[in-house]
Amino acid sequence: MLPFERFKKLNTEGNLWIYVLSLGKEEEICDEDVRRLIFEKFGFLPGNLLVKRILYRLRRQGYIKTERYKGKKAYSTTKEGIAELEKTKNFCQKLLQKV
What we know:
The protein is of the alpha+beta class. It has helices at 3-10, 16-24, 34-42, 48-60, 79-98; strands at residues 29-30, 64-69, 72-77. β2 (64-69) and β3 form a beta hairpin.
């Protein structure tokens, strides 16, 4: 695998939680729409099982909360999740300045 391909994979599917938290910070997101929204907004389509696993872990760790939205299971990002997302943004900005 070429270095750029590896970098791209690690920063998309390898860090799926960033994209999940980003989607849920402004509105409730139905669990069944996560994959489609990631594809539409970020340009890659993660696996269904991977998305379910990430949603489960983020719920368990308190970074997202489960709600009902239009009669469906949905989530939104908690204050803790938004804080983690901000830490990640700051880290990436500093890293880009160094590269």
